[in-house]
Amino acid sequence: MRILTAYPERLASIETVFLGEDPMQPRATAYKLEQVRMHQNYGLLKLAGIDDRNQAERLRALYVMTTLDQAVPLEEDEFYLYELIGMTVKTEDGQTLGTLREVLETGANDVYIIDSPHYGEVLIPVLDDIILKTDNDQGVLTVRLPQGLLPDSPAEDA
Fold first, then answer.
1. What's the rounded Cα separation, in Å, for the pair 36 and 134?
2. By residue range, what is the domain housing residue 62?
3. Between 39 and 130, residue with greater pLDDT
4. pLDDT attached to residue 67
5. Rounded to the nearest 10 degrees, how much is the dihedral formed by the CA atoms of 89, 86, 118, 146?
6. In a domain, 24, yes or no
7. pLDDT reported for residue 153
């Protein structure tokens, strides 16, 4: 599996993982985690009841999740990446840009992928001078867009 946690060493202490199509989906299937080993930037998992490649192949592209009580506690003003998915993204002047669809974790800084009805897919770098406020209670992310980030004209299919 591709590692999305900043604490991959904790995988070895987790007894049960949940696999599902969407982190926000309440339905996920529990699996006992029998073994974990790291290989390059990936985790190789052995799940109870998944004993051959064909069974494992059916689990491809699913999210591997844990319960919040097993997650690393957050510091003040921190949040889990899954909490960002689906947030409304607004500019500092109040214009609704779109909905945060995905977080790309690059080496230098994360990138938020926004689905915008006016501009199509918009990529926003996660930098302190661009991400002004993350309001989990309201589900709103406020951004200051750098000049030139948006195309001059809206997407044709909007």
1. 34
2. 8-70
3. 130
4. 85
5. 30
6. yes
7. 58
